Amino acid sequence: xxxxxxxxxxxxxxxxxxxxxxxxxxxxxxxxxxxxxxxxxxxxxxxxxxxxxxxxxxxxxxxxxxxxxxxxxxxxxxxxxxxxxxxxxxxxxxxxxxxxxxxxx
Length: 105
What we know:
- The protein has a single domain (2-100), classed as Rieske [2Fe-2S] iron-sulphur domain (Rieske Iron-sulfur Protein), CATH 2.102.10.10.
- The chain has strands at 2-8, 17-20, 28-33, 36-41, 56-57, 62-64, 71-73, 90-91, 93-96, 99-104.
- By secondary structure, the chain is an all-beta fold.
- The radius of gyration is 13 Å and the shape is globular.
- Helices cover 0% and strands 41% of the residues.
- The strands form 3 sheets. A 4-stranded antiparallel β-sheet has the order 2-3-4-8, with no helix packed on it. A 3-stranded antiparallel β-sheet has the order 1-10-9, with no helix packed on it.
């Protein structure tokens, strides 16, 4: 695992998602669910589409893939609606002094 800094915590507003591309790694989507940041590999498990282009549902802590409408839990990556049936990859997030760090595989 590799720990990388992605952004300042204030850069991801509540209810939003942003895409980051760490050097040499898969793109990462950071979503803000009511002030808590969550990170996933920025790829829908159903059709390899960027989740960062979708909508975040902060009250459910889910993200939607705009390609086919599947939603995923940002807590454990599990699909919440069809057509997706395979979980997405959730990453560990740590905020230190206002800076967002994730653990990359």
